[in-house]
TrEMBL record:
G5 domain location: 210-291
Highest taxon listed in the record's lineage: Bacteria
Family per record: Belongs to the transglycosylase family. Rpf subfamily.
One matching Pfam family: G5
Keyword Nucleotide-binding attributed: no
InterPro entries per the UniProt record, alphabetical: DUF348 (IPR007137), G5_dom (IPR011098), Lysozyme-like_dom_sf (IPR023346), RPF (IPR010618)
Chain ranges passing through the membrane: 12-37
Species of provenance: Nocardioides flavescens
Keywords, in A-Z order: Hydrolase, Membrane, Signal, Transmembrane, Transmembrane helix
Protein name: DUF348 domain-containing protein
Length: 373
């Protein structure tokens, strides 16, 4: 094996011109092949959604480049230059894939397509940047190839009345009163109310009012329980006469209240629990039922004062029946007789008549009217 190899080398060495000529032919053939290949291809810079690579294009057009790279354009994709444009060494091909933007603006839904890759640029490309609006994601967020769902709440000029205060103008990115109150830092519980309702939609220029309703509980350890008054008829005294038979006495209880306030003002107080510590004692009042003969007294007053029950001439006698103060006060009258009602004056006069056994306290008019004295 080794010899065959030595003999071969000798024979090769003996024919140097033949070997050298063969090598020259091989090199020339390779060089010709490379030149021919380079003549059939182009180096192109391909940019797909911002990612740039150098590719070797075997075709003459942009469409050929994309086919070679396995890129199929969708209906919303964009390529520049156009598919039929020719390419050569150093050409640039840019591809931007379409992305679906499912947009909800103040509750209104719509679908758009964009070749932008972030939220801010996409909104600008749609012609609606919503500069002061609230978005459901950051403006710098990337948009994936399968698209994005984006909610937008536009700023609204609102007239807001909080807890009974004077209305104020606010600009808020809110869809409902609930969202507006949250942006204003107002805590809302299940008792509070708004007009319109908490979850009703708001539009630019709307008004809404918030009513702060609080429900709290209050315990009073010792609270008076008022006594009741019971009236007992007494036919031994005249109508209008009353007297206390049994004094009343308040009871005592421990009580728990539910207290409702509206914008800080108490509007309702309800007992939700109590324990009576001592029962109240009813006041018993005797009430006269015997009727007076007003006709006699009216005739007597007509004689004494011309029927003027409020007369006060300054002569020391007062009212329709012309009492002096000592007599009036002796029989239970208070204040001036002329300031008392007709019925009260008759009641006092009746006591005086019954005690005297007749109308002798009015001698002149009694005689004139033929009344017993």
């Amino acid at each position: 094996m080794a010899e065959r190899s030595t003999g071969f080398l000798r024979r090769a060495a003996a024919r140097p011109a033949v070997v050298g000529g063969l090598a020259t032919v091989v090199v020339a053939a390779v060089a010709t092949s490379v030149v021919g290949y380079r003549g059939l291809t182009s180096e192109v810079r391909l940019d797909v959604d911002g990612r740039s690579t150098e590719v070797v294009a075997s075709g003459d057009t942009v469409a050929d480049v994309l086919r070679d790279e396995g890129i199929t354009l969708g209906p919303h994709d964009v390529v520049a230059p156009g598919l039929d444009s020719r390419v050569e060494d150093g050409s640039h091909v840019t591809v931007r894939t379409g992305r679906e933007v499912r947009l909800t603006v103040d509750g209104q839904e719509s679908v758009h397509w964009t070749t932008e890759t972030d939220v801010s640029a996409a909104l600008k490309s749609l012609g609606t940047p919503y500069g002061r609006a609230a978005l459901s994601m950051s403006r710098s967020s990337s948009i994936p190839r399968d698209g994005v769902s984006l909610s937008v709440v536009t700023p609204k000029r609102l007239m807001v009345r909080l807890a009974g205060a004077e209305p104020t103008k606010e600009v808020l990115t809110a869809l409902t009163p609930r969202e507006a109150l949250a942006q204003l830092g107002v805590e809302v519980d299940e008792h509070d109310r708004t007009v319109p309702g908490l979850d009703e939609p708001l539009a630019d220029g709307d008004r809404f009012a918030f009513t702060d309703i609080d429900v709290a509980y209050e315990r009073v350890r010792r609270e008076a329980v008022p006594f009741a008054t019971v009236e007992e008829p007494d036919d031994s005294t005249y109508v209008g006469d009353t007297s206390v038979v049994t004094p009343g006495r308040d009871g005592v209880r421990s009580v728990r209240y539910e207290v409702t306030t509206k914008n800080g003002v108490e509007v309702k107080r309800s007992v939700v629990g109590q324990k009576v510590l001592s029962e109240p004692v009813d006041e018993v009042v005797s009430v006269g039922t015997q009727t007076l003969d007003y006709g006699v007294w009216d005739r007597l007053a007509q004689c004494e004062s011309g029927g003027n029950w409020a007369i006060n001439t300054g002569n020391g006698y007062y009212g329709g029946l012309q009492f002096n103060l000592s007599t009036w006060q002796h029989w239970g009258g208070t204040g001036l007789p002329s300031n008392a009602s007709r019925e009260t004056q008759i009641a006092i006069a009746t006591k005086l008549r019954d005690a005297a056994g007749g109308y002798g306290a009015w001698p002149g008019c009694a005689a004139k009217l033929g009344l017993p004295r």
